[in-house]
Amino acid sequence: MKKSKTGGKPVKKGFSYFYERVIIFVWALIELLPLYWMLMLPWKTWDDALNSPFAIPTTFTTENFAKVLSKFNFGQGILNSLLYAATISGTACLLGCLAAYGLTRMRKKTGPFFDKYLKMGLVMPSMCLVSTTFLILRKIGLLGTFWAVVLPTTAILQCATTLSFSVWFKTVPTEYEEAAVVYGCGPFRLFFEIMMPQIAPALLIQFTVIFIMIWNNYETFKVYAMGKTPQPVTMMVAQLFTISKNQDWGMIGAGILISSLPTIIVYCIFNKFLQKAYTGAGSLK
Amino acid sequence: MKRFYKNPVYAAFITPALILFTVFTIVPVIVMVPMAFQDTNGVVVKSWVGFENLKKVFTDKEFLTCMKNVGKIFLVNLIALVYSWIMAFRLSHVEGFLNRLARFAYMFPLVLSVTTIGKYGVCLFGYNGLINDALALIGLERVSFLSTVKWAMWTCAIISAWWAFGSGVVGRYAAIKNVPKDLIEAASLDGASKSQIDLYIIFPLMNNHHTLTIISTISSALMTYALTQIVATGLSGVKFFNTPISYIVSFVTSMKYGQAAAYSLVYFIFCVGISLLVQKFTKFETYEY
To answer: Among A98, A285, B153, B193, whose Cα sits 20 to 30 Å from the Cα of B55?
Structure first.
């Protein structure tokens, strides 16, 4: 019988030991089932995909990819998604970082007030504001443009990013700043050259989380972009559903595989980092 | 140094975030209030209708159905939340390859878009899907999960709960791993079993985590829109999948902004009220280990 690592009760390899492992393994397979589905579906013929979507293809065909690529420019869609995701995550991180630094270092009474003001966004149900945000965007002439998606999304992300960066800035010792100020460093140089590098891991984590969130976003594009702005890849896939009327599953599968491939590859390479980023834990090894 | 921090330039640091937040989050709330009392197409105010729009909100049976749908999503997600704790504890008992494989697999659905998850759900629960194949295998009749009012929203709720489940398990697992090992060792030396350590040592130390997960489960259920829309695309019973947000969006697309604002206002107050209520009854605690 093996002794426990802590030196306590010996570990028994009984029924519960194997039961726990079997459950964990089976659930892991369930979670990976969409990957199998995505990899199998695009190679199936119309009938195969419609009648047995989870079976291994009986005859392989590349026709679905040809159909999808003739209908949509997925390369452009991926580039558009990259542009949206990079702009929104970059802006949200930069503005959140600036605000967090200002709020944690402001000695005036206004600091805590603005801190609470921004934190209101945490309880703000963003999608409830869709009707009036829609009108505001129309009034300022941005509706249906690239910025119609970028600005409201960045605004609602501000609260979470500011809060997260504030926590990090509070852990940075003020001695760094004091030394820099003694040597004549101004506030902006102090921020960009001394303080920002101190919270680089937090910046990277926030950037990654927001980037994937925007890459996979659907609702903001659907409501504010109105099909006029550069179409991201998620909207192209959504249009495929309408075109195929839930019948041509092979074509839907091809679209889904092409659109998901970048995130799947990124996840396979950086999964450990992404696990830490999403859970906010350094304890995962 | 104190004088340095009093430098007005610090106001410049917070100004861009404040402006953006105010224009696209606070102003829409303020604008919503008068609009709820108007009959407007967004360009001109046709008339002031008093409480007419708000009365409609409280007498609209379709909106009530939308609220019930959100309730179903929340209920299934809450059950999944409880089970995710059990799975997280199970995962914490396992080390090595299986642990790494499980974490890789459990986080995987999180990187998939709502369009992928929605259509995967349709395939899974469709008439020829895997679930129906399994039912047929054990001699039961196939069920139209997605085209009957009885099953449609529950199916959507299960898809939504499954999507968030894996990452929830890894999140809870990370929280368990953050508990100081000294406490676990002390309990183990005192003769506590694994399940006793989980239940009486680790679980109570996670109060803050519980509060956060409950709040996020409620808010994500209340804001459900994209998943139900994707699942409903191309299906016959689109109305079965209505949620309050999709209902509000339908008013926006038909340019009935007065009604959209009234529904938004009521739902906004409801959502904020719920999150404040949860925060009131759950408190954040700090532990000194």
So the answer is: B153
Beta bridge pairs of residue B45: B40
Is B59-281 assigned to CATH 1.10.3720.10? yes
pTM listed for this prediction: 0.86
Q: How many CB pairs under 8 A join A and B?
A: 310
Q: How far apart are CA A208 and CA A225, in angstroms?
A: 23
Tell me the H-state helices in B94-193: 97-107, 114-125, 130-137, 152-177, 181-189
Cβ distance of B170 and A266 shorter than 8 Å: no
User: Which one of B111, B159, B252, B282 makes the best mutation probe of the A interface by having the most chain A beta carbons within 10 Å?
Assistant: B111
Domain segments of chain B: what residues?
A: 59-281
Angle at B35 between CA B34 and CA B41, to 5 degrees: 150
Listed in sequence order, the residues at least 6 apart from B171 whose beta carbon sits closer than 8 Å to its beta carbon are A278, A279, B88, B213
Distance between CA atoms of B188 and B93, rounded to whole angstroms?
14
Residue A271: which H helix or E strand, with range? helix A249-279
Our separate counts of H helices and E strands in chain B read 15, 2
Specify the range with the lowest mean pLDDT, choosing from A107-111, A130-134, B125-129, B217-221. A107-111
Cross-chain residue pair A126–B191, CB shorter than 8 Å: no
Q: In chain B, what percentage of residues exceed pLDDT 90?
A: 36
**What angle is formed at CA B31 by the lines to CA B28 and CA B37, rounded to 5 degrees?**
135
